[in-house]
Amino acid sequence: MPPEEKALPLQELPAGQTVFIDANIFIYHFTGISQECSSFLERCERGELWGLTAVHILLEVLHRLMMIEAVTKGLVTSGNVAKKLREKPNVVKQLADCQTQTEAILEMGIEVVGLTLDVLKISHPYRRRDGLLVNDSLTAAVMKAEGILDLATADPDFTRVEGLRVYSPLDLAER
């Protein structure tokens, strides 16, 4: 996809496609922010789409859900939540929903691939050429290694990566 193009609507992803799923799709599903993300993941679970993600995405989901859970439960206030949790290990011990939700991804029929040193090497040009941060460059590298062109994400940075078809939820704009 040329950099000037925008993402395509997530609901228009054709059946039968293999699609890489970015962390924000899972986050918006678990937090109830996007019905489109939930519907998309249901399509993957039904086998209408072949969903694939990677270990670094699960780690990002787990981390972000932990931060959200801590604030939602009133255990810490918003703003630099990670620092607050580092200072309160007894609060961290109380956080379990984030783990349960992250493990639920494995029950959605979504394949999870690992990271290799080759993927790490492949990721460098995406940072240098497209200005992607580390996790995003790893996503692009895993997609290249797996031969996947379709990406489900709400992150507009991926529209800068030539050759990717980016599909995004539209219901986030309504918020």
SSE diagram, text form:
Elements: E1 8-9, E2 18-21, H1 23-30, H2 35-46, E3 50-54, H3 55-72, H4 81-86, H5 89-92, H6 97-104, E4 111-113, H7 117-130, H8 134-146, E5 150-152, E6 165-168
Parallel strand pairs: 1-6, 2-3, 2-5, 3-4, 5-6
Helix pairs in contact: 1-2, 1-3, 3-6, 7-8
Overall CATH class: Alpha Beta
The CATH architecture classification is: 3-Layer(aba) Sandwich
The ordered string of helix (H) and strand (E) elements is EEHHEHHHHEHHEE
Instruction: Provide the CATH superfamily.
Output: 5'-nuclease
Which whole number gives the mean pLDDT?
94
Q: Which strands sit side by side, in order, in the main sheet? A: 1-6-5-2-3-4
Report low-confidence residues grouped into runs of 5 or more: none
In terms of DSSP E residues, the strand content is 5-15%
Structural class: alpha/beta
Task: Write the CATH fold name.
Answer: Rossmann fold
What does the largest sheet look like? 6 strands, parallel
Task: Report the radius of gyration as a whole number of Å.
Answer: 16 Å
Tell me the span between the first and last alpha carbons.
27 Å
Indicate the multimeric state: single chain
